[in-house]
Structures are given as C-alpha cells and as structure tokens.
UniProtKB/TrEMBL annotation:
Upper taxonomic lineage: Eukaryota, Metazoa, Chordata, Craniata, Vertebrata
Organism: Nannospalax galili
Protein name, as recorded: Ring finger protein 125
Key words of the record: Metal-binding, Zinc, Zinc-finger
GO biological process, one term: protein polyubiquitination
Molecular function terms from GO: ubiquitin protein ligase activity; zinc ion binding
Length: 94
C-alpha cells in the first residue's frame, strides 16, 4: 500500500509504524489505504486521525503497537463488537 500522507510505498504491516514515526501529529483527513485493500470495507468512514483508525480497525496487523487507551475508547464506541472485546481480554491475560 501507499502512505496517504507522503505517498511512500510501504508494507501493510509497517504502515502504522511509519505513520507513528513520521505523521504522529497529522490531522489531515485521508482515506485508509488498508480499507481500500478490503472490498467489504468502505474508506472515509472514520473520524479523527488515521493512526487511531489503524489501531482501532486494523489491530490484526499490529499486535505490537496497540495503545490500550485507544482500544478502550474504541470499545466504548463499539460495545457490540465482541471480537474486539475478546481480543483485548485475551491480550490482558498474557
Ligand atoms: Zn508517510
Ligand atoms: Zn482502514
């Protein structure tokens, strides 16, 4: 995929790392390049920063980069998403 901020070629699993390193304070509204790869997901459906969206919606790629404050916020917004809940519970027990 390509970084939506600087158009740099990146692996899917390095996009969040790249964004945290280079675009942490970026607040431009961009469409998510990972969502674009998934035919069932529609881009431009998230609020706030791309970094937060990546952490909330694409955590399967990013086991090492989960910010639990952000996950808790996501749970509050998506209390019906049981798969995410189970994921957090599982992570807390390890
Ligand atoms: Zn970039
Ligand atoms: Zn996305």
């Amino acid at each position: 995929c390509v970084c939506p901020f600087c158009q740099r070629e990146l692996d899917e699993d390095s996009l969040l790392d790249h964004c945290i390193t280079y675009h942490r304070s970026e607040r431009r509204p961009v469409s998510c390049p990972l969502c674009r790869l998934l035919p069932n997901e529609s881009p431009n459906t998230f609020d706030g920063s791309l970094i937060r969206h990546l952490q909330v919606s694409h955590t399967l790629f990013y086991d090492d980069f989960i910010d639990f404050d952000i996950i808790e916020e996501a749970l509050f917004q998506r209390v019906l998403d049981r798969s995410l809940l189970e994921y957090v519970n599982h992570s807390n027990t390890t």
